[in-house]
Structure prediction request, 442 residues.
Amino acid sequence: MEVKVAKFGGSSVADAIQLRKVKEIVESDPQRRYVVVSAPGKRFEEDSKLTDLLYLCKTHIEHNVPFHQVFQVIWDRFKIIVMNLGLQLDIDPYFEEIRDHLQKGVTNDYIASRGEFLCAVIMANYLGYDFVDPSGIILFSENGKFLPKETDQALREELLKHEKAVIPGFYGTRTDGSVKTFSRGGSDITGALVARAVGAKVYENWTDVSGLLKADPRIVKNAQTIDRVTYKELRELSYMGATVLHDEAVFPVREADIPINIRNTNDPGHPGTIIVSEEEARENRGVITGIAGRKDFTVIGIYKNNMNSEVGFIKRVLSILENYNVSIEHLPSGIDTVSVVIATKALEGILDDIVEDIYRKLGADTVDVHQNMSLIATVGHGMTRRMGVAAKLFTALASNGVNIRMIDQGSSEMNIIVGVENEDFETAIKAIYEAFVEKPQE
Ligand code: ASP
Prediction:
């Protein structure tokens, strides 16, 4: 039988009501044999994620403040879940053990991992699945470097022994047995690793949105869902601010050519977004897949007569920025000009020094600094070799009164990036969306 791996995020396991939905989803498809869970997340806007509360216990200890109150809040949340689900499961011994460990001194990673651990214990009991602890299976080196090959083998060997299993997300262990977590949101990575290890037909990532949207819903009301997106497009979109998935979760499944399906636990009938490799995505594509953008970039424009004939000029510009440990987003250039686009935050406190260095070391004639620029990426394999896409985009912006300050098209023709004033950001995204998604025929 083919296998699906279903990973449920924090909002999907926030309380007993959500866990019931999870059970229904899992049981509605016998292929959903491996389930990965996050720690319970927020139940409402002002609520706290359990992982944050667990870190808070540790912070209390570090500052010699009693941690018992926070610890009790965590304990109670889990107890209420168990009670509301009517499970015959005694979780007190787990909490007593964790409390002992806390008192003796534990690492941040150990305490943070207990949210996923306990959630998986409860979920396994509720579903009647085996519980598989990733300790000694998801492996990190002594220095904390993730070990993909060793993990893949160990996970496969272990999971083969279980017809159906629940695996806590977010952590594994170092070679010395100590707990090591991935970075925040890392249960997505665990899900991808499990999917790869069992050769899943699909990696389902269940969350609280019905997939990736064609534009930020805070800017475009009722933005449509992206049905299919390639890994490359996803990378472009998420780099520009559209995130649903931990960045590193893509690699294990992409290598194994396993599609990821983003689904909504609160709307399980919705097909969500499928993330696939290029080949599969070719057919029936619209011109664009999605629009994403980020605010607050600075452009440093450098002018020098005869720059084009000066060998190594750009290299020297880059090395000045390297000296300040600043990374560059874009580098549009003209004959005697080159501009560097940098996230404004990265220039805090060093902008004047950089400008001075550019004058002094490069003999620039003028250096202009423009702040408050936004970058907007219009992304889609469908744009490749299609005429008139850029014209349509620029017309849409011009007719909405948006001045374009920079244009950059990747050589893959998969995206067109425009730089606009921060104050035009929302108008520009709406205009592009309208032109390509709402009125594509015009
Ligand atoms: N619980 C962890 C976090 O809040 C990991 C996860 O949810 O993926 O970051």
Remarks:
- The first helix runs from residue 16 to 27.
